[in-house]
Fold each of these.
Amino acid sequence: MRRWLALAALAASSASAADYSGPLFDAHLHYNEEAFNGSEGPHPLPDVLGRMKRNGVRAIIANSRPNDGTKSLAQSPETRQAGVTVVPFVRLYRNRADYTNWFRDETIYEMVQAELARGTAAGPYRGLGEFHLYDSANANGPVARKLMALAEEKDLAVLAHVDDTAIDLLMAHTPSKGAKARLIWAHTGIGGAPVARVDQLMAKYPRLVGELSYRPGLTCEGGRLCPEWRQLLLKYPTRFVVGSDTWINQRWQYYDDTMKGYRTWLGELPPDVARRIAWDNGASLFGLKPP
Ligand SMILES: [Zn+2]
């Protein structure tokens, strides 16, 4: 009876666990043209920085179509005033047509080289992406191969929205065959690769990191973590990050809700694990200091 009471008390305390309240690293942020549209758009710089600030987002992986959005975040004194560190990535898309052709388009490779040479006001680019592969076989496209090799040579991270098959294909194109590749798996497989398969890939590639926006099966009733995902996060506490994926303006409108949702389920984890997923894992990928 006493044991039952203790268990009941434990369940009650975890049900009312406080939300995570520390800093957040938004590891999947886009500031696309339609968000600001010169300064006529619905989300000019002060608006998006205000959203980050009030949600305790202290660093972001910025990547934007075209790269101008990232550059304006990187160079604005308002970004520093908001206490937000920008980790710039080269987006592979100049326009929407590039989504379905980048992996074989040499002009994309040239654009990436030019951007890397130029850098941003916040320092050199630290990664490539986000890119998409709607057909995993396109991971074998000539430009996809070259970019994966380039990323590893220059120790750039890669943010890839791909399925689990493409993870293996992309890793195979790096000089280390994936042993050293810093690949951030956007959504950790938006198609919902089974947890066992995610586990297998995490074990196989020591620097693979799972980003958790839109991940099917992650949360269950009431926005709480589903049991098998909770187990996976506890098994690899240094390997997951969270992101907003502001790919359309609507995602900016709901930015507060997205971050609130993360804080809710992060609060169900042991505090050190929550802090890692929320901040430390992203920060240590790029050598950021604690905020
Ligand atoms: Zn995205």
Amino acid sequence: MGLTVLLVFGLILNAAMLCNGGVTSLFVRKVEPTKDMPLDSDVFRVPPGYNAPQQVHITQGDHDGKGVIVSWVTPSEPGSNTVLYWTANDKHKYHAEGHVRKYKFYNYTSGFIHHCTLRNLKIDTQYYYEVGIKHTMRQFSFRTPPKVGPDVPYTFGLIGDLGQSFDSNRTLAHYESNPNGQTVLYVGDLSYADNYPFHDNVRWDTWGRFTERSAAYQPWIWTAGNHEIDFVPEIGEKVPFKPYRNRYHTPYRASGSTSSLWYSIKRASAYIIVLSSYSAYGKYTPQYRWLEAELPKVDRKETPWLIVLMHSPWYNSYNYHYMEGETMRVMYEPWFVQYKVDVVFAGHVHAYERSERISNIAYNVVNGQCTPISDQSAPVYITIGDGGNLEGLATNMTEPQPKYSAYREASFGHAIFEIKNRTHAYYTWHRNQDGEAVAADSTWFYNRFWYPLEEPTSAMK
Ligand SMILES: *[C@@H]1O[C@H](CO)[C@@H](O)[C@H](O)[C@H]1NC(C)=O
Ligand SMILES: *[C@@H]1O[C@H](CO)[C@@H](O)[C@H](O)[C@H]1NC(C)=O
Ligand SMILES: *[C@@H]1O[C@H](CO)[C@@H](O)[C@H](O)[C@H]1NC(C)=O
Ligand SMILES: *[C@@H]1O[C@H](CO)[C@@H](O)[C@H](O)[C@H]1NC(C)=O
Ligand SMILES: [Fe+2]
């Protein structure tokens, strides 16, 4: 019975696809306000014990996955900067020394923020680590990725614009219920503290405590969004990205970048490039020069999958943030086609959308060729800003659905990008209303370097 319904629904979707090249989902989410969890919520609880480390999170700490940056906050005094770590088979405890800092934002003063990089870890190994030495120790664990190589299977989770609402909590729990997600590719807009008066940075702390249950155990790869800018000259806060850069470090130096806001990493069979939508990207700027030098370095024989993360989407058919990514698209899209990027993930729009493989690089101001065309060298563009923050869903779409838009739906959720080998990756999008096993949208990705055929779901002619 259920299967029949699914099949019929599938046929309707397929029919819709063949007619206009795109699907606007028939799924209608109940419209209800998206509210932030109150400060006394269970997920924001301060861990017990004097000066106990809180807001523990990890990210990749070098270029190829043998390093991990461990970050945490101590509330009462700096305490120790040391991370103790060991593997299951080898009980010898190693230690690494980090740094501590604090910052002020208007009348808020942060706790003691620690960052410590563990280096030269064994590949594909379960590690345990401890922070809070001398006061209250807390223990966590992570698994290092396999050695970088072309056929290494690896599964990434995709989350964006999470915030800290009751829906955010559902999205995170939904992602956690998938046992396969090994690393989160986070496409920007973290805490939404800036929606509070004076950008109340207490909401940065609550966000850190909320996400610890995942981010202390698997790396979250950070991208900066507009809610990380925190530029408020009216109250004397004139340095953009201050809270974000103090709290969330990235291994940018390892990829020759001069800013933590744009960088690259290799992980298993993927090469991941993170860009900043809110830093200068025009010709001659640091980000432009870095990306120009970076793309030729990607060796698809070593890392077949070329993935780009950014916050503001280049292709977006919602009436929210419409065309905000356009100027960056004009600058960089020809490179993405030339270097055959497999997929671009963005957030910003609080909804979900997947494009066909398209490009729009022929236009030169006078020739009138300004329509996106089907292009098998181009990436698929996915907007996954549907983490569930307090601003609510973007529901208003441009009509009719553009031909390049393969699937769009205004629901909260997350996605999974599961690399099988050098030619195939399976991608699924999971709306929060369904169980983890249900994929509301799914498609095979064929690698653009090793297997540049048209994917079976492609419908745009
Ligand atoms: C910061 O200033 C605002 C506005 O005056 C006030 O409501 C808030 O309580 C202050 N916070 C702290 C930590 O002093
Ligand atoms: C958040 O989700 C977790 C996991 O499902 C649950 O245990 C917790 O009670 C939730 N908290 C809130 C405030 O919704
Ligand atoms: C949707 O967006 C369009 C364009 O901004 C606007 O004209 C229209 O009123 C909006 N519709 C709703 C229901 O908000
Ligand atoms: C790659 O993975 C796909 C999907 O699982 C499979 O069909 C294909 O045979 C694999 N290729 C190789 C060379 O193993
Ligand atoms: Fe945003």
